[in-house]
Amino acid sequence: MASSAKKQKVQDSKCIREFQTWWTEKYGMISKGDKAVCVLCSGTVVCRTSSVKRHFETNHKFVSQKSEPEQKELIASAMKDRNKQSTSMIKYVGKNCRTSAASYSAANVIARHSKPFQEGEFLKEAWLACAPLLFDDFDNKDKIIQRIKDTPLSRNTIKERILKLAGNVTDQQKIDINSAPFISLCLDESTDVTKSARLTVFARYCVENVIKEELIAITSLLTTTKGTDICTAVKNSLAEKEIDLKKIVSVTTDGAPSMVGKKNGFISLFQTNVGHSILEFHCIIHQQALCAKSGLISLYNVMAVVTKIVNLISSQALNKRKFDALLDEVNSVYNGLMMYNNVRWLSRGNVLQRFVDCLEEIRLFLQNEGKIEQYPQLLDVMWLSKLMFFTDICQHFNELNVKLQGTNKTIIVMIDLIRAFDAKLHVFRNDIITRNYKYFPNLKKKSTI
Prior knowledge:
With 449 residues, the protein is of the alpha/beta class.
């Protein structure tokens, strides 16, 4: 008996709490979630007839005391005003949301391409110049142009948008990296074009069975680049991202003494701060670059001559202008030579290939300047053969280096690439012995001249 009474009470409660449509016409109430909202004062009331009626009669006596037709007319008028206001607000908010979203998209593109903040104003000017022509056959052309004018793309706006986007990315990164159970780091210290020492810190971690690789920080080493300086910079970078040092399980470095020194190297100092042993790896891409450099040391006299000639032509303004004019005169596809940079892994192969492609123009230029006798190697068949071979093999090393780079490259993928290249070296050797030169296009071209 008690159970049936309780069940009946629950059913009655459900009926009472449901919004009744007739409340709108009689009391001026509309539904909003589990509450009733008064269109006359925007107050909220519990979905119960007694509460709705009490609110109407207590708070709106000037309406409740009128006749029923007058009540309906006043409530209908209030409903109409509310709907009109809501529609206007939706349109206004919708318009602003779209223009704001457009400005965020523009800021994202500007940031990705490393363009100045004022490029937003240039984009807007370009859009406004193109819009009348692009949308000439559109009925709402004027509205489209007005929407473009309303899009905020000023310098300060783009700056704020980019800062917010960067902050959002940082927040997401913090959440992901702190939810990972283990973290691996990759460090690289190098000197940029301004001769400032820069340290980059990458992290690899797993979030919901997805492996991620993210740039944690790029910091400047203001004075020395010792192991202590690197260790301090790394700890500060990890602290900014609120990363727990206990989660660090491995570190990959470029193998420099400041990184792997037994006493004052970064690895030994960092392990002391972390409090547990860390797996240490030497970057396989650095190893490949060092291997290519040491394996071709017998041909470095070729590179020395090439570098000397390139510097003669490109480092002196007058010679550079004369050589550029010569290239233009012979309708060359190039507009100059490339300078060699020992830091950049791909530089050697690219410099050699450009030198070979412009070899005839280089000879002609040196002859016109009366300096061809200073470089007899350019007429030496054996030296030229070494040059062509060196260029071709460097291109193969460059291809391997590029394949090893990129995201989501595991040790399994890298080892497969190294083994495949090792097998290619045997093929290259047989190709040279048999004089087919299938894989040495520059050497083949030289042999047919």
